[in-house]
Design a protein that fits this description.
- With 150 residues, the chain is of the alpha+beta class.
- It has two domains: 74 residues, GMP Synthetase, Chain A, domain 3, CATH 3.30.300.70; 62 residues, SH3 type barrels (Roll).
- It is 25% helix and 41% strand.
- The protein is built from three helices and nine strands; from the N terminus they run αββαββαβββββ.
- β1 and β2 form a beta hairpin.
- It is elongated and about 55 Å long.
- The mean pLDDT is 88.
Length: 150
């Protein structure tokens, strides 16, 4: 592989965005004889299996066209799943109105809160718990996860 993981991510991200989706995460293991490439793709309203197949075909053609990897590899494209961590600003924006569990930094400590995402823009995240609202800068968020109903 002649590209860094960041360069590969950018190449894939550009292609996925042209198709109207967001690249949520990428896992690359392309060392040795057989490699594994996993892309997790989403958008507002979710993504279905046919759309995952479209993305897979497009990324496969892109890999071939740009000769991104030598040797054999397996490509998987899927939605990130309900129980995944929220990692990007878009993840939080896409999930406004949903209940989450959030870990965030306050000074030199981490705090955990459960509540509903009230709003999320490029800089600030607002979560409502039972009694009050919290405004948290995105830079202070350590991790977030959708609170599943079961």
């Amino acid at each position: 592989m002649n590209y860094s993981k960041e360069e590969i991510r950018k190449i894939f991200e550009d292609e996925v965005q042209k198709m109207g989706f967001d690249l949520v995460d990428i896992q690359l293991n392309v060392t040795g004889k057989a490699g594994m490439i996993r892309l997790f793709v989403d958008r507002d309203g979710g993504i279905n299996i046919n759309e995952c197949s479209e993305v897979s075909r497009s990324i496969s053609e892109l890999i071939f066209r740009k000769d991104l990897f030598s040797g054999n590899y397996r490509l998987e494209v899927s939605s990130p799943g309900l129980d995944r961590s929220l990692t990007t600003k878009k993840d939080f924006q896409r999930n406004v109105g949903k209940d989450i569990i959030l870990e965030y930094k306050v000074e030199s400590d981490f705090k955990k809160i459960e509540g509903k995402i009230a709003s999320a823009d490029d800089e600030l995240f607002i979560i409502n718990d039972k009694n009050e609202s919290f405004s948290i800068p995105f830079s202070n968020i350590n991790k977030g996860k959708i609170k599943l109903p079961w």
